[in-house]
């Protein structure tokens, strides 16, 4: 079994809940209330801030230039077309990206694990969070790809950004990096990757739970 399949199997229930979620089902059906999509995008824009820094750290820790290049190209996509999508969608939904929204507790926890992974100096820890973030989005978005063109752009482009050949190759690359480093890790470091992978998957599920509920005060 590939190491990344092993990691996913350890948190199968959270993975299933995160990738077959009512939030994304409603998004793909076009029935998600616009205020829920706006609130989600404002929280996710906070997530992207930490994600960009984490991806930059992974680029810095990749063992060779060929290992780093696909991540560097993906960073260009996030900071280019995806960033522009956030700007356009938040504005079209009647909101504003600046000043940033206050972070919901789930968003804050995500920011913490991304910062911890980025600052750990451990490539496999960075990859564990990156693989969950991109693979889980590919998994939920792919079954809805054929509906994207018929939806308002704030729903449709969010599906398109996370499906198709280009995004599949991003996920294949990230999984390939983690699969490649796994056999060289000590048992202790493998357990640490398992913990981070499961934590990140739990947070992906909780992020959609909170967005579906409209970020109620706790
Ligand atoms: C919380 C979360 N996880 C993953 C992704 C995919 N880039 C995202 N935009 N937001």
TrEMBL record:
Belongs to the TenA family. Coiled coil: none annotated. Residues 15-212 form the Thiaminase-2/PQQC domain. PANTHER family: BIFUNCTIONAL TH2 PROTEIN, SI:CH1073-67J19.1-RELATED. The keyword Hydrolase applies. Substrate binds at residues 44, 82, 134. Keywords: Hydrolase, Thiamine biosynthesis. One of its GO terms (molecular function) is thiaminase activity. Catalyzes an amino-pyrimidine hydrolysis reaction at the C5' of the pyrimidine moiety of thiamine compounds, a reaction that is part of a thiamine salvage pathway. Thus, catalyzes the conversion of 4-amino-5-aminomethyl-2-methylpyrimidine to 4-amino-5-hydroxymethyl-2-methylpyrimidine (HMP). InterPro entries: Haem_Oase-like_multi-hlx, TenA_E, Thiaminase-2/PQQC, Thiamine_Salvage_TenA. Pfam families: TENA_THI-4 (PF03070). Its EC number is 3.5.99.2. One of its GO terms (biological process) is thiamine diphosphate biosynthetic process. It comes from the Bacteria. One of its GO terms (cellular component) is cytosol. It comes from Roseovarius tolerans. SUPFAM superfamilies: Heme oxygenase-like (SSF48613). It catalyses: thiamine + H2O = 5-(2-hydroxyethyl)-4-methylthiazole + 4-amino-5-hydroxymethyl-2-methylpyrimidine + H(+); 4-amino-5-aminomethyl-2-methylpyrimidine + H2O = 4-amino-5-hydroxymethyl-2-methylpyrimidine + NH4(+). This is Aminopyrimidine aminohydrolase. The gene is tenA_2. The active site is at residue 204. Pathway: Cofactor biosynthesis; thiamine diphosphate biosynthesis.
């Amino acid at each position: 079994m590939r190491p990344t399949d092993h990691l996913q199997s350890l948190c199968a229930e959270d993975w299933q809940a995160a990738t077959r979620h009512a939030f994304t089902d409603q998004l793909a059906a076009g029935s998600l209330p616009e205020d829920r999509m706006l609130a989600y995008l404002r929280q996710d824009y906070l997530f992207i801030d930490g994600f960009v820094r984490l991806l930059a750290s992974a680029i810095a820790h990749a063992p060779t230039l060929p290992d780093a290049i696909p991540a560097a190209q993906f960073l260009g996509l996030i900071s280019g077309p995806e960033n522009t999508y956030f700007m356009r969608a938040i504005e079209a939904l009647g909101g504003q990206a600046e000043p940033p929204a206050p972070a919901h507790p789930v968003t804050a926890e995500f920011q913490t694990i991304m910062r911890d992974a980025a600052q750990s100096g451990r490539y496999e820890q960075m990859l564990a969070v990156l693989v969950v973030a991109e693979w889980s989005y590919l998994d939920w978005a792919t079954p809805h790809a054929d509906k994207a063109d018929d939806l308002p752009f704030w729903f449709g482009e969010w599906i398109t950004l996370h499906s198709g050949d280009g995004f599949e190759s991003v996920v294949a690359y990230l999984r390939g990096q983690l699969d490649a480093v796994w056999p060289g890790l000590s048992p202790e470091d493998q357990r640490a990757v398992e913990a981070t992978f499961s934590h990140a998957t739990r947070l992906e599920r909780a992020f959609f739970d909170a967005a579906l509920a409209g970020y109620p005060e706790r």
